Amino acid sequence: MIFDTLMERLDFSIVSSKKVLEEPFRLDSEYYSKSNLALEDLIISKNGKTIEELGGIVDCSAFYPSITGDYSYDKSLIPFLRVNEIKDGLVTLTENTVYLPQKVLDINTGTIARAYPGDLIIAKGGNTLAKVGLVTNEYPVYATCRDVIILRTNKITEINKFYLWAFLHSKYGQDLMWRSASQTGQPHLTLPIIKNMHIPIYDKDIQDWIESAYKKSVDKQLASSCKFEEAANLLNNVIDKNDENSILEKPVIISLKDINKNQRIDAEYYKEGYRITREKIEKKSHWYLSDDEIIDANFTPDKETLWNYIELANVGVNGSVDDCLSDLGSALPTRARRLVKEGDVIISSIEGSLEKSAIITAKYNNCICSNGFYVLRTKKLNPKTLLVLMKLDPIQSLLKRACSGTILTAFSKDELKKIPLPEIDSPVQAQIEKIVDESFYLHDQSLDLLNSCKQKIEELITLADD
C-alpha cells in the first residue's frame, strides 16, 4: 500500500532502450519527463514533417580567429548578425550592430557563414537560447557569428517561412528546442536538433494569415522607428548637431592641470570631437543633473514577494520596455536593486549598451531594474523628451567619454552629473511628447501583431489537443 502511494507521487517515465539509442541519444531523465514526452507525442501526432524533410538546411559559422579589430559602424559594409540583433522575433539592426568589410568574409570563407533574406537565425545557447528571428531584405547578405544557427528556407515549399518562424517562436517551438538542447556544460542547440524538429503543417490560408500579420508588424515597427527619428531630429536641431564633430581626431595637448582636475589620463577622454560637442551645448542655455535627479539608491526586494524585474535585454530599440522577468525577491539576481516609478527614465551606464534607455510606463510602475541602469527623475523635461535627449548621438558620445574602468567599463554618477544638457522650450517638449507617444503606439501594435502570429499556432495545437 505504501509502495503504491509512493509510486503515484513519483513523476517518472518508462522508455524503451531502443528509443534511448535513437538520435539524439539522450540519457538525462529530464528529457524523458512525462511533460516532455507528452509534448513530443502531441507535435508528432499532427500532420507534419521534420525541418529536413521539408527542405530546410541548417548551417552555422565555425571557429574563426578574432575579428573584433575589423568591426566597423560603416553601414555600407556587411552586417554582422549576433544574438543582440534578434529582438521580439525580428532581426533588427541597431546602433550597436557592427559591420564587416568583404575582405574578412573572403579570408574566412569556410568559417563565417552567410545568411540571406528569408533565412531564420536561432540563438544557440545561454539565456538567449532558442531566440528566433527572420532575416529581412534590408541587405542582400549578412555575416553571422558563432552564437547563432542559420536555417535556410529557400528550398522549403510546403510551408512558408513566416509560418515556420511563427511555430519556432511559439510556446511549442520554444519548448521543443529547450527540451532538446544539449546538457553538456551550458545548454546549447546543435544542427541535428534543428533539422530533426517536427513541424505541424496547417492549411495555406492559415499560413497566409500569419505571413500578412508578420509583414504588417514589420511595417508598424518601421513607422515607429521613423517617428522616433522625427523626434530625435527636432532635438538635434536644438543642439545644432554637426556630424563632423564625432570623427574629428586632431592631436590634442593636455596640461597636467587638466589631468588632475578630471582625474583621467586615458587619451580617449580628451578627443577633440568630445570637446567640440560639449562646448556647443555649453554655449547655449543648459543644465546639469543633480544628485536628487539621479536615483541610484539600492533597494532590497522582499524575499517572499513576487517582483517584476527589468534588465538590459527587456529594453527596446526606441525606448520602450517590452517585457520583464517575474520572480520572488529571493530568486532575483543581486543586481536587481533599483525601484522605478511611472515616468522615470532609465539609462544604461554600461559601455556597449549606452543606447539602452527607456521610459517606465504605468504597466511597469514599482518594478525593479538592474543596477546597471541609472534612474532619472527630473521636472526640467518631460519623460519623453528626456528619453530622446539621452539617446541623441551628441549625448551618447559624452556618455561614452564618461565611461572608465578595465573589465566592466561604465560611467559613474559623478561623471553623469558633469554632462551638460540643453534646455528645451515647453512647446518643443510638447511636440516631442506627442511624436514619441505615436511611436510607442505603433511599436505596441507591431508587438501585438507578432504575438498574434505565435498565438495562432498555439491555439491551433491546443484546440487539436483538446
Beta-strand residue percentage? 15-25%
How many DSSP helices?
Answer: 15
Shape: globular
* First and last CA, distance: 34 Å
Let me know the number of strands.
22
Overall residue-averaged pLDDT value: 85
- Biggest sheet, strands in spatial order? 2-11-8-9
CA radius of gyration: 25 Å
Q: List unreliable stretches of 5+ residues.
A: 243-248
Sheet of most strands: 4 strands, antiparallel
Work out the helicity level. 25-40%
Please state the structural category.
alpha+beta
Question: How would you briefly describe this protein structure?
Answer:
The protein is of the alpha+beta class and 466 residues long. It has 15 helices and 22 strands.
Structure in words:
Helices cover 38% and strands 15% of the residues. By secondary structure, it is of the alpha+beta class. A four-stranded antiparallel β-sheet has the order 2-11-8-9. A four-stranded mixed β-sheet has the order 6-3-10-7. α6 packs across α15 (426-465) and α9 (204-239) packs across α12. The two termini are 34 Å apart.
